Amino acid sequence: MPDRPTGGVPIELRKVTKAFPGGGEPAVQELDLDIPAGEIVVLLGPSGCGKTTTMRMINRLIEPTSGDILIGGQNSRDIDPDRLRRHIGYVIQQAGLFPHMTVAANIAQVPKLLGWDRRRIAERVDELLTLVGLEPETYRDTYPRRLSGGQQQRVGVARALAADPPVLLMDEPFGALDPISRERIQDELLRLQDELAKTIVFVTHDVDEALKIGDHIAIMQRPGHVVQYARPAEILTNPASEYVEQFLGGGSSMRLLRLTKVGDIELDEVPYATEDTDTGDLLADIERDGRGYALVLDGMRRPLSWVGPGDLQGRTGPVGVAGDPVTASIGHRMTLQDALETLLNADTDVVPVLGRRQAYTGALSLGTVQSAIAAIKARERERRLRRGEAVR
Amino acid sequence: MNLWEYVGERWDLIVFETVQHASMVAQCVLIAAVLGVLIGVATYRRPRPSALATAVAGVLFTIPSLAMLGLLIPPLGLGVAPSVTAIVLYALLPIIRNTVVGLRGVDPLLVDAARGLGMSRGRSLTRVELPLAWPVILTGIRVATQLAMGIGAVAAYVSGPGLGEQIFSGLARLGGANAVNATLTGTLGVAILALLFDGFFVLLGRFTTPGGRLGGARA
Ligand SMILES: Nc1ncnc2c1ncn2[C@@H]1O[C@H](COP(=O)(O)OP(=O)(O)O)[C@@H](O)[C@H]1O
Ligand SMILES: [Mg+2]
To answer: Which SS3 state, helix, strand or coil, does residue A310 take?
Structure first.
């Protein structure tokens, strides 16, 4: 970026209602929603519950029947719709790229509307292509139909980001992609968002996508209202109603595995020493612990090797290089699901967990993960009971 | 006298009539294209006006060209005026119809994308919708041109310019000297012109359709 990218601004929906002419009950009813700056907020719900209508009112592609929408504190009614839209990125299903324009021309549309000069536009196009992982030389002058679905959607995202808008609206942007491309482009969106910190309103009916992408999730119910607005973990462990629980469907525990980070659970402790620890002291530690092994760390507390009493027998002085090198490790930002996979593939039953700068922070075994899951389930049960009582 | 001798003898006149014919057709189609596309653009979003425009153009279309030319004599007299008017009126129908069909055929998703990016109605029309509808509109103009070729020949009935003069004078003296030669010359001239114009449209289509998006024809 030539300058720092523009960060997000908050969006506030105040009692927003949309009744389509002759449409019976309103598509969106007195909806209140505070969308914090720089967050991804997912509108989640079954088809027809009013997600798209809600989103399109933000850039005034649909005019609200009543209520107010404030973008960065400014009432959207007071801004000319075309101007408003040039400052709100818009990404739709199947990308909606213009087939008669090259990739570069597609991306250049909003900067052209804003009257940028050609050189600045050309530079920006290349920068954006690089940002979304497409080699500018290769893709700049091709036409959209030569691209795969995933590549088209990347260009769609680049086009939306072209004028560096603070807000991005995305309506089921990855809905038409195959599962593998979808996973990959979701990961990239998250990586981008780490860098850009835009305010993103993301519409989907896919629960897993919502849980993965959303900082907050607004679960919507027909006709057009929000039944729960919370962080993903909160929605999973504490669904606000029967409807939410049903919509989330089964597999809630698996989802928790995907959502819980290793750093969030209680880890194992194993005896450890550094290379200059006295061998006798370490042997004593191992004996006291009773499990029969210990971890040797380097000066930066990075794991080097596993040692047992057999490796140390008959030695004196500093531990030095001894035992079997550590081959598997788990990062503290990994999900429990990924950690489980590492554990199942590891040579040892216990795997060290690494925190910042690869430093040892604890250890994980299948048993530890199991008790963590048990604890999560117990909490869930307890909450459900509490809610049951509250209802009664 | 055979056909070649006939043509050789009157070469200058025939070239003159051919150029006149081509020029008349080109100008009439140009006028019809501008009018037809404008009418199409003005009405395609609303079903009733566009149905009305197509219906009116359709009714005009069903009037036999000789009758139409005859009807235009009282208000417009003889010569260029009634010829041009008749040709333009006939050429309108395919152009209006194809403009409406082409614009309606543009994927609504793309129009939505254009509006969502902040393009005004007009800009969405000129940058997205018309370019995407262009192959269909161009087909309309192409059909209109072929129509204009034929009606241009009939225009000689009201003393219009062009190759129709050869055909009509030949038919008038059927059995007489060079009657068949004259008719043949006019007919062949119109046919050759039609082919040339059509070739031009094929090239025009190729050069004005970037990305080869014509129904994935190149995919
Ligand atoms: N242009 C429209 N005219 C009339 N009704 C509409 C229009 N757009 C959406 N609706 C209705 O509004 C409701 C919500 O639609 P929508 O916001 O598209 O739902 P979702 O995006 O959650 O599937 C639906 O019942 C739909 O039929
Ligand atoms: Mg929708």
So the answer is: helix
